[in-house]
Design brief:
It is built from seven helices and eleven strands. By secondary structure, the protein is of the alpha+beta class. Strands 3-4-5-9-6-7-8 form a seven-stranded mixed beta sheet. A two-stranded antiparallel ribbon has the order 1-11. It is globular.
Length: 235
């Protein structure tokens, strides 16, 4: 019989036993981070993944399931090829598509510089996968610029305000495609954030947990033999 993986970093109620798939934001962030690590992302990128998934879930958007879809698409691949190739204000994929986490990280790193200066004019980003995960980073741009930033694709336009409110056609962020980031008018009809805790599909939780468990190793006779104190103290 294959021994079950032993995860000493897990605490609290196991994810798969949480009634109704109800998680707090901190639980979503911790699970998303570990799942991203299990899928092969670096610590820094995994932290961005946890942040992005939690930011979306806090606004009633499918952060956990979108992250899972991204890990299925990108996990274990050449992550360097998912980063943008930047030519002025035009960002392109080095490979088949761009990872939204890599794009978001680059937007943060280059904030205020010409290639990412949203106040200097529209920014073109080609062939981004699972663009919903880009919205938390667009929020950071909106905060820095003091005005709403609009994300336009072939499916429509949505916007994120400086206060983090998401407006417009969020479905436009549900497909892979070319994007334009711009400052263009005031957003309307903001989405009302749900109350915590967040409800996440059981299958999504199970799959994320499967990725997270890749960061652990199975218990063995050697690990059990080395557990506990090596001496006896009967004082």
């Amino acid at each position: 019989m294959t021994p079950a993986p032993n995860d000493p970093t897990m605490s609290g109620t196991p994810v798969e036993t949480v009634a109704g798939g109800t998680l707090s934001r901190s639980e979503i962030e911790a699970l998303s981070l570990k799942a991203a690590r299990g899928a092969g992302l670096s610590w820094g990128m995994a932290e961005e993944a946890g942040y992005a998934a939690t930011w979306l879930e806090a606004r009633g958007l499918d952060g956990a399931s979108t992250l899972l879809a991204l890990l299925d698409l990108c996990g274990g691949g050449d992550l360097a090829s998912l980063a943008p190739d930047i030519d002025g204000r035009i960002w392109r994929a080095k490979g088949i598509h761009l990872c939204p986490l890599a794009v978001g990280t680059a937007l943060s790193d280059l904030r205020g510089l010409e290639p990412a200066d949203i106040t200097a004019g529209p920014l073109s980003i080609a062939n981004v996968a699972h663009t919903l995960l880009l919205l938390p980073f667009v929020h950071a741009l909106a905060e820095a610029s003091g005005t709403a930033v609009h994300l336009t694709s072939a499916g429509g336009t949505c916007a994120v305000g400086p206060n983090g409110a998401v407006c417009g056609d969020v479905a436009a962020c549900s497909v892979r495609g070319d994007l334009i980031l711009s400052i263009d008018g005031d957003p309307t009809n903001p989405i009302t954030p749900p109350k915590t805790p967040c409800l996440i599909d059981k299958e999504t939780l199970r799959r994320l947990q499967d990725y997270a468990m890749r960061t652990t190793v199975p218990a063995s006779d050697a690990s059990r033999a080395g557990a506990g104190a090596s001496t006896t103290d009967n004082d």
